[in-house]
User: Fold this.
Amino acid sequence: MDKGYKRPTARSRELRNDATEAERKLWAYISARKLAGVRFNRQFPIGPFICDFVSRTQKLVIEVDGGQHAVDVAKDEARTAYLESRGYRVIRFWNNDVLERIEGVVIEIERVLATCPPPTPPASGRGVK
Assistant:
């Protein structure tokens, strides 16, 4: 096994403990079902990617991007395409938007959540007899 490889859960935990200021600020607004009663997870793995914030029931990924993302646009586009192929909607905010205009960011997330299809109910029972 590659010595540099870390299991997604270990890497996710590392990223949660090492969150950026912008990620911490947004988390304060969306954690504990504070936003539209929707549950979000931080640093959640989907396939080969670890996403900043994910609502699995709403199939919504929120990414908070620093300046390095302006340079590697193709990488972000490929990541978004992969997530969308798994049924997720992806929205992105720049760090400075979160830090300087958090109210507008929260309003935009609420707007997007209002357009998400309702979650599908879990299958009931353990099969048909």
Observations:
- Confidence is low (pLDDT under 50) at residues 1-5.
- Residues 42 and 53 are 5 Å apart (CA to CA).
- The chain is about 45% helix and 20% strand.
